[in-house]
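User: For my dataset I need records formatted as: sequence, then structure tokens, nothing else. Please produce one.
Assistant:
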Amino acid sequence: MFKKIQLVIFMAMLTCSFIFGQEEKKEEKPPLGWNQEVVGNLSFNQSQFDNWQRGGEDSWNWQLDINGLVEYQQEKYGWVNKGKFAYGNSKTGGNEARKSADEIRLESVLFYKATKYLNPYVSVSGQTQFVEGYLYTDTSKIRISNFMDPGYLTQGIGIGFSPSKFFSTRFGASAKETFTRTDIAKEHFAAGESPRVEYGAESISDLNCQVTENILYTSRLEMFSTLDAINEVDVNWDNLFTAKVAKYINVTFNFNLFYDRDISDQRQIKQTLAVGLTYTLL
């Protein structure tokens, strides 16, 4: 698994090189005081068949994504709060509707503007889901997740580096709490251990690249390594391509790679391609 993580990091570095190779315009400082933005995206698709001799099953799916930002900027310090919420369902044939997306992610970072590029910071973040998730078989379904099952809380302190408006990263000491009540996940926990508390190092990098006038690529790579096993790295790598085809219509492709040995020994991958309505709510 560690070799796969190295590959992930290498790919991220290549992306960074691409970002830094772009010609940068003169950067504008964010306005002082409070700034906020809330963007919602709703996607839906449906297929229906009637006497269709080539076969096929009726299907539909929908997904709602809301991304929010609230920040407070001053000359020497800043406070940035981000939230990501996603939920969706899908249905194929005679099967019951099943969850296809479910995510809650919150982050708050307070930083001091020590120099143009270096910013000491403290942070807290959390991640979980809204409702129960199931593993489906031919005859039954098994509950494998729920709200705060698993759930993650992370606190960090360290130094941030922002050499470009396209790229920023931070590295520091971190404490991570993992919550779960699922027996399958608890196989990785010691008896009576919940939450599991780990101390180690964190690295979080953000890319924001305007590939063309109508195509935006954003990427976020989160890594955590405990002091007890420094060569084992938890990874959450989220990539999103957004192509604007009309004022309120976007095509999006999302690729997410997730690995946490406390929950599963296997890496997890999710990818989605969707066409939807996007609107700035605030």
